[in-house]
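Backbone geometry:
***
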Amino acid sequence: MKKETTENKDLLKSLNTSLTDFFETDGFNLSPIEGGASVRKYFILQFQENSRFHTNPVILMYIPQERIDIADNYQNISRYFNRMTISQPPLYEVHRELGWLFVEHAAGHRLDLYLRNTAEEETSRIYHRLVDFLLDLQNRAQLERDCWAFERFFDTEKYLFEFSFHLREQLLENYFHHQLSDTEQEVFTKATLEISKFLDNHLPVFVHRDFQSSNIFYHPASRDNHFQIIDFQDARCGGPMYDLVALLWDSYYSVRKNLQEELLQKFYLNQPLVHKNFSQDEYRQTIDYSVIQRKLHDAGAFVFSFHLTGNDRYLKYIQPAIQMAVEQMEHHSNLNNFRKLLLEILANSHA
């Protein structure tokens, strides 16, 4: 964390100097804000007098040049959202050579923070609206060749890659320091291949990829768009339940079991693609397998982020993510050996 703190201070100082030259004034305040598990850095830019932009303050997203592809993806998906009238904070300017994106500050409150002090009844109402929002997003987000999300797929190959890289390499090897034996590798390969093939259901829709409370802003006073979504640059095509699982099995906010069940049923009845193509049993198995795949990916991603950025604040979410995955495995006897393997590694770990 000390290294990360020093680097952040150096970056803040450098940005203040560069922005002063860029705006030809030092009449602004630049304050860092907590970002996600990424190389991106976020700042609130507040002009003391006249703002260069339509609103004041704005968000400055800084992206290092070695990952400038993130800026390209963000801009592409943002333009697509504009064409499809999907609610997002407007993107004002992109300065690719500097790694700068200026974005309107999202309206309202970041959902995970807002929900900390929200009564159960209101929380339920918000989540029902969120499922409506997701259904509307999937309806609006029609195929368009200019949108890069439709060139990327959650298919068997992608799922297997994530199991290999995030689960085996990052989580098991780099975090738990456990090398799979030949027998354990057989268990790992059999289970992950079965899950990956099952989830490759060939009914792709637009998938946000991280449709969770930390990437959703809620504006209670808004009459129309209660929600805005951010952090969508990794969007791709995938199964219609992927974003639903990301929402209901969220590492940053725990959704009550009874509310999960209500919303799962609501989605099943109101998403025509799901209702027409999945029996209830197939739907529930897809949900279970999606939770297993996503949460094990998340656990590995938290490790990867720590090694990449030195930011350790996401490490506390690793074991809860694994536990969510393991709980869903209890419903499937064919995954018993995989479940036992993960629990044994967890029990024997000193991480």
